[in-house]
Design goal:
By secondary structure, the protein is α+β, with helices and mostly antiparallel strands. It has helices spanning about 5-30, 40-55, 160-175, 180-185; strands at about 70, 75-80, 100-105, 135, 140-150, 185-190, 195-200, 215, 220-225, 235-240, 250, 255, 265-270. The chain folds into two domains: about 5-55; about 70-270, Distorted Sandwich (Glucose Permease (Domain IIA)), CATH 2.70.70.10. It is about 25% helix and about 20% strand. The strands form three sheets. Strands 2, 3, 5, 6, 7, 8, 10, 11 and 13 form a nine-stranded antiparallel β-sheet that branches. A two-stranded parallel ribbon has the order 1-12. α1 (about 5-30) runs antiparallel to α2 and α1 crosses α3. The radius of gyration is 19 Å and the shape is globular.
């Protein structure tokens, strides 16, 4: 077992211990300070941080990796969130191979996507968002090494109460349950030369490929959904140096013709199936 994998297993074990201590403290009325119950939670984040720093973090000067160029996984008009162009690790932690991960949200035209709500509606149907059901493309000629699409597409969490629920309750439960529950329905593609691509939060039942299939760059492999640890329908994309997100380190990427969009940057990708006027 690699250091990173061990760190992730210990991370989840310590989180479970924290939950067990809190429940036991309440149930048995133990007299010690509740702050001691937080010790396993503190240790969990120390373990996962140290584990991913062992031998040099993915974005440290000791581990210089050139960006891998791939084609964009979507077409049309989109905007970027949690971009590695603004910071690394882009999602705040190196865990799950997501050092250079990026989230993209469909913006077919200004105002087409429902905005953040402070209170009401607390949740919305995934069908209310333009990203839901949009085709997701293979980013290179590759082999499918993981294909999961049985998790439901849940309601949005794009209100303040919904976001707090996602961050404080649902996100923690999914973290303990494992990386598959975080990514939701997802594909992992072997691009060759030790590079793997992950496409996450896909729509249930939308995968057009299975494990062991070979795909071509630009081929439709799934549709965008709202499964896993997701606040609204969007696509999560990342490159890694292994097929298991719990044991992999992130790899930087560049999208052909786009580069790496910054946070809030709107970008457009032409549909290769549509011939330009000539």
């Amino acid at each position: 077992m690699s250091v990173i994998k061990f760190a992730m297993v210990a991370f989840r074990g310590l989180q479970l211990l924290f939950v067990a201590l809190v429940l036991a403290h309440i149930g048995f009325g133990w007299s010690y300070s509740v702050w001691w119950d937080l010790l396993p939670l503190f240790l969990a984040y120390v373990v996962v941080t140290v584990g991913h720093r062992w031998g040099g973090a993915p974005d440290s000067p000791r581990r210089v990796v050139e960006p891998v160029e791939v084609v964009p996984p979507v077409t049309g008009r989109w905007s970027a969130l949690n971009s590695p162009a603004d910071r690394t690790p882009s999602h705040g932690i190196h865990a799950h191979g997501q050092t250079y991960a990026i989230d993209v949200i469909a913006e077919p035209e200004p105002g087409a996507r429902p905005g953040f709500r402070w209170v009401w509606p607390v949740v919305m149907k995934p069908q209310d968002f333009p990203a839901f059901g949009v085709p997701v493309l293979a980013v290179a000629d590759a082999m499918v090494v993981r294909a999961h699409d049985r998790q439901r597409d849940h309601l949005s969490r794009n209100s303040l109460p919904g976001l707090l629920y996602l961050m404080l309750v649902e996100g923690s439960v999914r973290e303990i349950a494992g990386v598959s529950r975080i990514l939701g329905n997802h594909l992992i593609l072997d691009l060759g030369n030790g590079t793997y691509a992950a496409l996450a939060h896909l729509r249930r039942g939308s995968l057009t490929v299975r494990e062991g299939d070979r795909v071509r760059a630009g081929q439709v492999v799934a549709r965008c959904g709202n499964s896993g640890n997701s606040s609204e329908p969007h696509l999560h994309f990342q490159l890694m140096d292994g097929p298991d997100p719990d044991a992999a380190r992130g790899v930087p990427f560049r999208w052909r013709g786009v580069g790496v969009p910054r946070n809030q940057e709107v970008f457009e990708v032409a549909d290769p199936a549509v011939s330009p006027p000539g």
